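Collaborator request, handled under Task 6.
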Amino acid sequence: MESYDAVVIGGGPAGLTASLYLARSGYRVLLLEKYLLGGLMAEAVEVENYPGIPEPVKGLELARRMAEQVRKAGVEVHEGEEAVKVFLEEEDKLVETGKGRYRAKALILATGAEKRKLGVPGEQEFLGRGVSYCAVCDGPLFRDKRVAVVGGGNTAVSEAIYLSRIAKEVYLIHRRDQLRADAVLQRRLFEAENTRVLWNTTVKEIIGDQLVKGLKLLRASSEELLEVDGVFIAIGEEPRVELARQLDIGVNKYGGVAVNWENMETSVPGVFAAGDCTGRGFQIVITAGDGARAALAAVEYLRRRG
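Structure tokens returned to the collaborator:
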């Protein structure tokens, strides 16, 4: 069993920042990420509001830069290795994956969030066959086709704008009469000639045979059919709290891991949480800040432990 000063679980902006700060403080750090570094940030079409980067940058490129910086700092990075179990052994924290077990004095949970599901018939059945949660990943498959985006926030509007450059027609389906996205994104959406917003509309069912063929919509108390080849769902995220629950750490009013917001420490001494898994923020700059705060608090904890 390998031993570390700190293990960070999750390679999004919170986990990357926390790892960087811990390594720069001279500690041996292991970063575990079950997929690829970047988390949901890597799926962002463009990032335009990250301080110090005035020109739009693709989320995948920003993730690559952060990952490079973390590796240069000396963090041991294990991509494609999922933490499946965490438990305590006296003061130490033990992490179990499908590839090994690791011991740490401090643990930072940066497990992020998963895309919220619509929960309608056809959503699961057509996943990967017309249903997607990532326009950057799957958008090129729908060149010159008709697609729909469900949602009204920054992610949904950004994805609709991105898809307007690829698809023949883009429908943005929103259950309210106003978008929640930033004004600059709304302006770009409305300037796109091949986009249309369907206000006060909800998706009741996703239909098709082998592939998606359309959506059953509810508008003004009446149902109608919208023929599309694909649907991109962007209605928010759900914090991942499974590992925290294994340590009997509770959840907060946001549905995320409960922490002391001043230092990001949980109810278990030496265990911290940062980023989307806390249920607050869902902005790269906020989650990165959480990661820095958690790391600095972890440094103080490690110094006290000696």
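The cover message to the collaborator said: "The chain is about 25% helix and 30% strand. The chain has two domains: 2-114+237-305, 131-233. Please let us know whether this matches your experimental observations."
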